[in-house]
Amino acid sequence: MAETLFDQYGGFSTFSAIVSSFYQKIMDSDELAPYFDGVNMERLMDHQTNFIAKALGGPDKYEGRDLKAVHQRFKITLPHFKEVAELLAEALEEAGVTEKDVETIISVVGSLQDQIVSA
Description:
Blueprint: H1 5-8, H2 11-27, H3 41-55, H4 67-72, H5 78-94, H6 99-110, H7 113-116
Helix pairs in contact: 2-3, 2-5, 5-6
């Protein structure tokens, strides 16, 4: 059986660090940070790490709500969605994920656009 991307890069410890870096980039963005006002970031990062784990072939520990239901109230625009994807790609690259694997991961993220973009 082929090793999953999740396992290939070190599992939860690696992706937890990537998610932390990713959200720091988001919080540094004047455009994106307002979406997270009042959000429990520790809880969100835990959910995001579990979501990424599941998406990349790791254990299914994600217990979050339906993506469309969660994101609809935020009225996320396509440009903001694309900026988030770019920041995730940066965090992945900085963690040593290969360009090919970054493209694969960003493709998974891109497939969620219709569930996240609502404005």
